[in-house]
Amino acid sequence: MTAQATVPTTAMLQGQFTEPAGTILHNPVTGAALTPISGNTYDLTKLPGWTSTAAQAGQLIASLGYPAPNITSSSIVPSNNYAFSETRIENMNEESLRIDHKLSEKDSLYGSWNYFRDPAFEPSNSLCSSYVLPKFGCFTNQYSTLANVVYDRIFKPTLLNEVRFGFDRLVQPRVQQDDTVIGSTYPGLPGGPYFTQSGYANNLGLPNTVVTGYSTIGGATNLPQDRWDDHYQLTDVLTWTRGPHTLKFGGDFLLVKSTNVITSSGRGAFNVNDANLKSVNGSVSGYTGDSMADLLLGLAYTSSIGTSAPTVYLNYQSSDLFVQDDWKFNQYLTLNLGLRWELDAPVYSPHNTVSNFDISAQQFIAAGPTTFQHLYDYDYNNFAPRVGFAWQPYKKESTVVKGSAGTFYTSPLLYNQFLSNGTQYPFRYVPTYTASKGNDISFGNPFPGGKPPCTTLIPTTQPGQTAPALDCLAVLSPLGIAPHYATPYIQEWSLGIERELTPSLVLETTYFGSKGTRLPISVNQNQVNIANFPAGPAPVQANRPFAGYSTVSLQNTITNSSYQSLQTSLKQTYSHGASFLLAYTFGKSIDAAPGVGSGSNSTPGVQNVYNLAAERGLSDFNVAHRVVFSPVAELPFGSNKPFFNHGFPAAVAGGWQLASIFSWQTGRPLTVSDAATNNSGSFGAIDRPNLIGDPNSKADSQTGLPTHTVKEWFNVHAFALAPAFKAATSTSPAQQGQFGNAGRNIVTGPAFTELDLTLSRSFPITERLHGQFRAESFNLLNHPNFFNPLTQGTQFGSAAFGSITQANSNREFQFGLRLAF
Asked: What whole-number distance in Å separates Cα of residue 617 and Cα of residue 610?
């Protein structure tokens, strides 16, 4: 795993900061401008606060978390000055068993069992958050059990029945790397310990610390964790052949049980963002002018802590019924007709370990006999018709016209979609404290107490109305599931022509389209509608719709998607020792959100919840063009071949086969956001800049230098900061904050090119024992396949804006020997 990261210099960790021209550092206590010791270099150690408890706590976190730079940078502000390289380690063992038993001429039974263990160290992976500094990967394991039993009954030659029972279990523990490599070396935050659940293992390491402009340190906020997922499935299919019809009737029943022990900021989490500190404090104290200086002096913009990690139990079950008819209308036309009815029972907790936030009542409601069982209502109207056909218009197999259309419903994702309902109040208390004018977040007192969180309501002066208790803290971020949360579905359709050019060469061209409906999205309901807010000072917490809370998320199924594509392939079946498949896809996918729990890093979220239509754009996974070429050829050596066809040379050189896969595709899109997350004053936390040029131009619009480089992938000067709220002065009128007009996913990332090659040889050892040797290469040409710009690379205002810091694997070789008997 290789990547570039941004870390502070050794001089910075020692308090010596050299700033760009025009940047002035301030005393965060008094707000007074500091005097440089030379040029524009400041010595923070001269401040009385440098030795404070808060500062020492921040300095310790920085010293344990950041390695020294190993790349020389000419930039005054650090940017991509550390080359990260660690090896991913994986060891997998698998066992499998299958038993077939014929009970009678009409009855047969078979079963299979598979089990594998897959421990791994992930230096940087989405499972552990994609951090790119040493000490902050994770150790993960996967224990998978899969078993099934199938019973077939032949009632008569035209009437068959199959009953299938399946079970699978996934056990997946994950532990942050700094639990061991830092461990007890870090004593914890001042005033702690804050995590109070006794007997909870593997919770050592640094607090998760995000400093604007720098790579993240500290293990992921959701580690350590453990997960058990069980699936029980029963399927019964009756097949009846009657004349030209092959009918299938059946049912499919599924029970899914998910048990999770998952940490929520169990070691603490901090966000240090100087721009946000300046925004909330104005021209007074509370910030230094440099985010890293803020950390070293013990200041943060937000802090959060989870004091316990109780077990979360989630279940759902589905009952599906279906009928299908494969109708051979005549020799040249076959119709496929089907209908499914699917009922996914709403997600529930068998032990009532979830809560839902009631938006109208502004309070948490825990599951229970007197409140609710399911997180949302039943959706009974899930009918899924399907139709397909295959037609030979010239009454020859050489030309076939094929088409299909159908509706497909999706099942809920217990872990990615609904886990947060079990990790919120009242089952666990994970407050997020945000700095405000006169109320700093200090590492010396990281989680200010004294007042309870806002969780309940009190009567107001207006009869029948309630509001959050006034003497409480707006530190919780509730999640609510809309009562009428529906089952998402996708409608697909296709029409294609398959033409046989030669007996072994077939050309196929297909139009394929789809439309997603009632797709899930999570929307922040606690965002200030700045269009209705007067110009002048920026909104404050009291101006938010739910003033007693931080982010208030409502998950609902209100978005849709569209995909259109042309898919063409040329297939050569085995002929004269060779075969190949050449495929090309031209497509476009559009939606309004990446989806709940998608794990996408291309789109951070919704900018303006009062204008969801503005979020419609290219899907995070959109690829406009894709080409794949995969030939397989026998080498012309050995018996019955043109060369080395007898004797010892034939024995050595014969039986070799060469196969390759060449893949090329255009880049996926990404979204540019502001480094200052509340520039608009809306409290949406996902502001975007204004678009003033072409971000995908081949040259920087200001410098003229070429783009599409690692240092500047896109035109960074195509953006400008949108206006922020400002009070009137003697020389300028009051100003209203605005959202940026840059759209979602308007920047195209790097293309992907890879050539994989395999050389293999099969050979007999005995009459019943055969071997195969394989030498495989991946990315044989060692072509650099870059990731999209990530984190600071997509944040306008960051020193690393526009840069690429990670790439896919370089050239790899793999050798294998297989024995078959």
From this structure: 17
Q: Which tokens is 123 given?
A: 């230096």
Q: Hey, what are 367's tokens?
A: 């599951």
Q: How many whole angstroms separate alpha carbon 181 and alpha carbon 123?
A: 13
| Residue 35, number of CB atoms within 10 A of its CB | 10
Which amino acid is located at 759 in the chain?
L
How far, in whole angstroms, is CA 661 from its chain's centroid?
27
d(CA 340, CA 320): 7
Residue 595 and residue 490: Cα distance in Å, rounded?
Answer: 14
What's the 3-state SS for 256-293? EEEEEEECCCCCCEEEECHHHHHHHHCCCCCCCCCHHH
Q: What is the DSSP letter of 744?
A: T
- Residue 461: per-residue pLDDT: 46
Task: Give the pLDDT confidence of 182-221 residue by residue, as tens digits.
Answer: 999 999 999 989 998 888 999 999 999 999 999 999 999 9
Nearest to 582 by CA among 635, 657, 661: 661
Any idea which residue has 């092959």 for tokens? 246
pLDDT for res 457: 57
Taking the C-alpha atoms of residue 283 and residue 269, their distance in angstroms, rounded to an integer, is 27
Percent of the chain with pLDDT over 90: 73
CA-to-CA distance for 627 and 719, rounded, in angstroms? 33
What are the pLDDT digits (tens) for 257-307? 999 998 999 999 999 999 889 888 877 789 999 999 999 999 999 999 998
Query: What is the C-alpha to C-alpha distance for residues 431 and 687, in angstroms, rounded to an integer?
Result: 23
Residue 699 in contact with residue 706, Cβ under 8 Å? yes
Whole-angstrom distance, CA of residue 341 vs CA of residue 384: 6
Quick check: 820 and 772 in contact, CB under 8 A?
yes
pLDDT score of 62 more than 60:
yes
In angstroms, how far is the first alpha carbon of the chain from the final one? Answer: 38
* 3-state SS, one letter per residue, for 538-554: CCCHHHCCCCCCCCCEE
User: Would you state the pLDDT for residue 488?
Assistant: 95
How sure is the predictor about 462, in pLDDT bands with cuts at 50, 70 and 90?
very low
Cα separation, 752 vs 153, whole angstroms: 50
Please tell me the number of Cα atoms within 13 Å of 632 on its side-chain side. 10
Write the DSSP symbol of residue 157.
T
Q: Name every residue whose Cβ is closer than 8 Å to that of residue 255 and which is 6 or more positions away in sequence.
A: 231, 232, 233, 315, 317
List the helix and strand counts (H, then E) for the chain: 7, 45
DSSP string, 645-668: -SHHHHHHHTTEEEEEEEEEEPPP
Short-list 365, 336, 339, 338, CA closest to 352: 365
How far is residue 615's CA from residue 624's CA, in Å, rounded to a whole number?
A: 20
DSSP 127: T
Name residue 316's beta-bridge partners: 256
Per-residue pLDDT of 489-508, as tens digits, reads 999 999 999 999 999 999 99
Quickly list DSSP for 360-423: TTTEEEE-STTS-SBSS------EEEEEEEEE-TTSSTTEEEEEEEEEEE----HHHHHGGGGS
Which of the four pLDDT bands, split at 50, 70 and 90, describes residue 654?
Answer: confident
**Backbone dihedral angles phi then psi of residue 676, each to the nearest 5 degrees:** -85, 100
| Rounded CA Rg of the chain | 31
The confidence score (pLDDT) of residue 504 equals 93
